[in-house]
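Researcher: Let's run the pair from yesterday's discussion. Sequence first, then tokens, for each.
Model: Starting with the first of the pair.
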Amino acid sequence: MASAREEWDRIFSRLDHDPGGEDAWLERWRPLFEANRNAPILDLGCGAGDDARSLTRWGLEVVAADFSEKALRATRRRAPRAETKNVDLTRGLSFPNDHFAVIIASLSLHYFPGLRPSRSWETFDAA
């Protein structure tokens, strides 16, 4: 049986030659991102990097984090100005307090059924 990391790597390896697309949902939040240019944005569970690409095209500093190295490889190709980090959310985050102005987690947190939002934000605050 494949590990979770191997399974995600398998999923994202299919995207090696996919150019990706624009993520229109971010446009609604652009004023928030623009107002918080003083610190990087954390793209948690960045996947193949579509959100990171949009954010870096707007001139924003982005740290794109994912569990899958294949996803991070796709992100580096799609959003070369984003910093990438391999993270395992089940082990917490190792970023300093107040490091990020905004955290986005598009299509990622629902994969953690035991995750309670209030406790998650405490973890981010204490990271």
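Model: Moving on to the second of the pair.
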Amino acid sequence: MPNNLQPAALDPVDRLILAKLDEDARIPNNALAEAVGIAPSTCHARVRALRANGVIRGFHADLDLGAIGLAVQAMISVRLHAHTRGQMDAFLAKAPLMPGVIRRLLHVRHRRLRHSRGAAQR
């Protein structure tokens, strides 16, 4: 669901639910309900409502990037010297497709720091 301009109206129980899910998105519903002090059926309905209203957009795995060979991360700010269509097309062909027009911020993952340095110079 798209991000609304108005923040969702959340009560203290909703905020507790979100805090617990932020700590552990795989927490079983009965444990979540117990942690926030509500019945499991109420908890399930609230989580469903938070998802339907776009407050909870999804559940994600927290990967150890080093364990999969991507130990070095870098944030790279990109500014093109000239704003010609050819240069934009060449840049976009090499960079991941991201929203924006002229400036880009790339979050890259590499096996070694020297690979990040090379990406920054290209």
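Researcher: Give me one sentence on the second I can quote.
Model: The beta strands are 72-78, 104-110.
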